[in-house]
Amino acid sequence: MRGRIMLAALVWPAAASAQTAPDPAPAPSAQGDVAVTIYQNGQALVQDVRQLDFPGGRSRQEFPDVSAQIHPETVTLSGPGLGVVEQNFDYDLLSPDKLMEKAVGSVITIVRTNPATGAETREQARVLAANGGIVLQIGSRIEVLRDDGLPVRVVFDKVPDNLRARPTLSVTVQAAQGGHIPTTLTYLTPGMNWTSDYVMLFDEGKSTVDVQGWVTLTNNTGTSYRDANLLLVAGNPNRAMGDFSRLGESRLDAPGTEKSSTRERLGDYYLYPLAERTTVANAQQKQVSFLDVKGAAARRSYEWVNGWLATTDQPRSAASVIKFSTGKSGGLGDQLPAGTIRVYMRDAKGDPQFVGENRIEGTPMGSQMSLRTGEAFDVKGQAVTVERKRLSTSRWRTTMRYDFTNARSASATVDMAQDGLWGDVRIIDQSIVGTRVSADRMEWKVQVPANGKASLTVVFDTRY
User: Fold this and answer.
1) Phi, psi of 378 (to 5 degrees)
2) CA distance 212 to 197
């Protein structure tokens, strides 16, 4: 399945549902028609169209149910005949601790219940401090309100004006004329993110993979977005702050150049729209499927990489690698957003077992991929310097031998790579013809027989 992302739902057994009380209806939201664009760098663009009544001239309008992490400097408010004069963001949210902090200097009511008789007593108290503990003045005495397990509660006369039950943006606007005006509120907020995860089932006998791609949405903005139109953007738009690190050890052998006919683009980014409106509640993760491919061509390989003409004291394991394509022909047929691929193989009973995982970067369609899943138990290699001869003050001739062993009952192909071949490095002789894959790397394919050994010998002429 490719194209628009489809929602994945969990269905509980009917018997369990019948025994469970229905969830209470959520509190009504002041949001209007909401569209949320979520990026992979932890931020989102919210566009909220609300139907509001404005008096003519200047008035103050409140917009509750905005993100608690809203960047106020990114807010835009637009509507026919509206001009923005001033805006304020009230993010001091109502809570027991905040109520007590705001009550410093004010009089509250302390209600105590006698645990033996159940009788209540009430006293007026002035809050002197609420910093690390509650200090009260009750008549002529000073008392610390302690959490000692006795039934005590505090009664406030009102909620302070500067405390809000929900994150609220207040805007002073100038309306050319009064009336019902559709108003679009737009802002950027951190606290929303999406990541890609892939489940790959590798069939070594058939040399194929089945791949399921999942998107995980995370909302930590402090606000729920209900019945929202969601759009996911694959890529990381630059911000004035933040650091985007490089990903993983898996290698992009050859970047793809194929054009996608199904994915919409925005500049240099791919867009993944959800097929249906959905609610992303605060402090919630939601998963949706965006890729489902069966029987794409793939093969197992082993990689063994040596640093600049280095010698290894002991044999070390080759890396177990799965190679595949994201191309239309014989591949996954889609570009892959950055994420983690978890690989499974079936055991003798036919049950899938986890064999490794790795991260990938955003990968164009038509790319050749090498996914490193772990170290091979039975395939090992060792680099040996056979001879190193000085030909002049700046010229050396080095003979290297790479020895491989294979304890498997099937033959193994080791992609042997020699790194660090910068500058004027020449291959004088080689027992197996290799390929230069980059400016500093040569690769050779070494066939190691089942329960056997194989070697590669290369003579390097280096100048420096």
Assistant:
1) -105, -10
2) 8
pLDDT digits (tens, 9 = 90+) for 125-141: 898 988 878 888 898 89
pLDDT digits (tens, 9 = 90+) for 316-333: 999 999 999 999 888 898
201 contacts 352 by C-beta, under 8 angstroms: yes
Q: Where are the domains of the chain?
A: 96-155
What is the largest distance, in Å, between two alpha-carbon atoms of the chain?
103
Which tokens sit at 81? 């005949």
Give the Cα separation of 306 and 418 in Å (integer).
Answer: 5
> Alpha carbon of 177 to those of 49, 57, 79, 121: distances in Å?
19, 7, 12, 56
Phi (first) and psi of residue 97, to 5 degrees: -65, -45
pTM for the whole thing?
Answer: 0.66
| DSSP-assigned letters across all residues of 276-318 | S-EEE-TTEEEEEEEEEEEEEEEEEEEEEEE-TT---SS-EEE
Strand-pairing partners, residue 346, are 352
Give SS3 for 134. strand
Please give the Cα distance from 163 to 397 (Å, whole number).
78
List the single range of 35-44, 163-172, 338-347, 413-422 with lowest mean pLDDT.
163-172
Q: How many CB atoms lie within 10 A of CB 377?
A: 11
Write down the number of H helices and E strands in the chain: 2, 31
